[in-house]
Design goal:
6-stranded mixed sheet; 29% helix; alpha+beta; 31% strand; 166 residues
Length: 166
Amino acid sequence: MTSLRSASTARRRRAVAAVGAVGAGLLVLSACDKPTPISTITVGTSSVSSEASCYADGDGKELKTAELTECLKKDTAKDADIKSIKVDPDENVRFGVDPKIADEGWTILLNGNPLTDSSTKTYRTIPGSVFFNAQYGAQGDSTLVSIKEGENNVKGVWSFRLKKDS
């Protein structure tokens, strides 16, 4: 009789522990931020992907001009945690965005200035030499490239550092 009672008690304890673990897991997940859409840059066989450095999540939300300016300023800082990729100026740089970004329209910015017109495609290709050409506002062997979601109402910004590989 004692062994039946202890087995039943052990099962009950395991069930309570399992329910507690599931509840704790849900609590942890509810505290997490919803991930932003991803953008990717590919050069040759190398690629880097990133979530937005600034993002206005939700229907109808947008980044205000001051927020956008602050976001781009933060991304230009030397200590900014921005993904980087080496670019041979003779290679093409391929930009890919999540369909959610493409639906809103997106623009490629070079050092904060528009490099392309807005597009609703999920993929664009630009010659690597553009990113190191002073004519387009490039300076030195490193360039900040950003992807801006939204034509009139900006919803997000993704930034990457392109480093000249010659």
